[in-house]
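Quick one, tokens below:
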């Protein structure tokens, strides 16, 4: 992974993608998949949970002492789908810029 900083939005998308790709995951697995520290991941997960994009699926009996399990919600899948479509559209525009010659307008 290149040593580039991600925006908060990119980090949120990375978390949603990891959960969509791998299913419900424990915190340590999300950390490994997304390369996010424990403290930052907790902040991001709280934000995603507050916006109903991720849910805590830790069984009630195991909440004390067991590692939490998180899963993407249906709303999270929808939002992730919109971002993927938007990213694809941006890539198409960027590719068109590279292949389309600049048009010069001359005045008559």
């Amino acid at each position: 992974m290149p040593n580039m900083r991600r925006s908060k939005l990119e980090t949120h998308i990375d978390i949603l993608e990891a959960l969509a790709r791998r299913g419900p995951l424990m915190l340590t697995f999300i950390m490994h998949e997304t390369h996010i520290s424990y403290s930052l991941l907790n902040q991001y997960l709280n934000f995603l949970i507050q916006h109903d994009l991720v849910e805590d699926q830790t069984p009630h009996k195991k909440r004390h002492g067991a590692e939490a399990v998180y899963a993407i919600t249906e709303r999270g899948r929808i939002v992730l789908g919109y971002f993927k479509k938007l990213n694809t559209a941006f890539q198409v525009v960027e590719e068109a810029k590279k292949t389309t010659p600049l048009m010069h307008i001359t005045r008559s």
